[in-house]
Amino acid sequence: MAQHRLQRLASPAPSFSLLLHLLGIASFGRSFYFLTTWETPFTHAYGWHFQFLTIIGLGAALVSFALGALADMTRSPAFFQAKNAVSVLATPLEAVISVLYWGIRAIDPDLLIQEGFDLPLLEDVGFHLAPVVFLTLDHVLLSPPWTMPAYGTMALSTVLAFGYWYWVELCFTKNGWYPYPLFALLSTLQRVLLFVFSAALVTVSSGLLKRIYASINGYDEARREPHKPLKKVE
């Protein structure tokens, strides 16, 4: 299949693209495997570890890279386009997860982690840093430019934010506690504002990732891409 003129490296292809996707799958898969061996209150709780936005983002990253690897092995445009569609939201979401996690952790880890359940460093990096690194490399080196405009990203991220809020409250009614201790310290209005703020951060993150892509692969050309109706390979 033809490669987009702004794409830095060949993808889908059984070369560096396949290697990166397989390494990402191994990293994400290892993180999920760790969850099956880590005995915490979430192990048997309603919603399992998917109460955490981190794990939802990790799942999206795994789906994206699995589709990318299938595209590399089959050279299928359908798998490649599906990978790109998932990464449009998964990559900025993971960027926000990493920034919020490490930022809040630096201020007060007790706001994020229940007492007695600190993650080992390697697993912490696997959950909260590796996904954004892998997804950003895929976006910058192996993908055509994103064409979703800012209002589209904001709309999708807002739907995701309020969907997650509903999910968190549902789990709270079943379990009697929130996944992040921070949520218990906030009022309902404050939690709503937090989710709205997070949706805005995803939009900002998407814009910054577009700028990084443009600075590496061609600013003027990439800047014109969002005016096209679809993200496609040329």
From TrEMBL:
Q: What top-level branch of life does the organism fall under? A: Eukaryota
Q: What is this protein called?
A: Membrane protein
Q: Which UniProt keywords apply?
A: Membrane, Transmembrane, Transmembrane helix
Membrane-spanning residues where?
A: 12-36, 48-73, 85-105, 149-168, 188-209
What GO CC terms are in its UniProt record? endomembrane system; membrane
Where does this polypeptide localize? Endomembrane system
Q: Which Pfam families match?
A: Far-17a_AIG1
Q: Which InterPro entries does the record match to this protein? A: ADTRP_AIG1
PANTHER family according to UniProt = ANDROGEN-INDUCED PROTEIN 1-RELATED (PTHR10989), AT02829P-RELATED (PTHR10989:SF16)
Main subcellular location of this protein, as a coarse class? membrane
Protein topology in the membrane: Multi-pass membrane protein
